[in-house]
Amino acid sequence: MDKGYENERFESLSIKTTTANKFRKYCRKISKSQSMTLLMMIEFFEDNKISPMESMGTNMETLERLIKKRINGVIAIMKDIEKNQTKPTVTMMQSLFKEAEPKRKTLILEKKDFKKNEKPHFHEERKDANEH
After folding, report:
1. 83 in the Ramachandran plot: left (φ > 0), alpha (ψ -120 to 50) or beta?
2. Using CA atoms, how far apart are residues 121 and 119, in angstroms rounded to an integer?
3. What ranges does the record give for the region Disordered, renumbered to this chain (predicted)?
4. What is the model's pLDDT at position 26?
5. CB neighbours (10 Å) of residue 59?
6. 3-state secondary structure 34-91
7. How far is CA 14 from CA 19, 72, 93, 95, 103, in A?
8. pLDDT category, 109, cuts 50, 70, 90?
9. Which of 28, 29, 32 is nearest to 3 (CA)?
10. What does the pLDDT look like over 52-63, one tens digit per residue?
């Protein structure tokens, strides 16, 4: 039985034999009862505003335009999020990390308070090491 329709009574419809056979074969193919198959078909046409009398060409073009508009809308939303949320947040985080970094001290390689005539000892040693 069809869920939700157990208590409804049956009605008969008069349709041509070839159409009835084709419809029954389709119902078996999708594993639904004849009532549910017909109901699904009617709802499909109503929901999608499609008439079996008109061509699908114009409706498919309309559907394609609608999908493109929605995709463009999603892209615009993502760009807005990136511009107004992601980039400012990244900039703020980077500035916080720059302030939190320990300041690097310069290495002392030679004494700066030696007498003008006096040469530091380590320079002489380096010259000797380079000459050999």
Report:
1. alpha
2. 6
3. 109-132
4. 95
5. 14
6. HHHHHHHHHHHHHHCCCCCCCCHHHHHHHHHHHHHHHHHHHHHHHHHHHHHHHHHHHH
7. 10, 49, 73, 78, 91
8. low
9. 32
10. 887 766 667 788
- Which residue type is seen at 81? I
Q: What are the b/e assignments for 94-132, b being 16+ CB within 10 Å?
A: eeeeeeeeeeeeeeeeeeeeeeeeeeeeeeeeeeeeeee
Question: Global pTM?
Answer: 0.41
Output the six-digit token pair for 115.
């007498």
**Which strand (E) or helix (H) includes residue 131?**
helix 121-131
Helix (H, G, I), strand (E, B) or coil at 25: helix
**Residue 132 structure tokens:** 């050999």
Average pLDDT over residues 66-92: 89
Contact 126, 132 (CB under 8 A): no
Per-residue pLDDT at 122: 54
pLDDT tens profile 7-39: 888 889 899 999 999 999 999 999 999 999 999
From CA 132, how far away is CA 87, in angstroms rounded?
A: 57
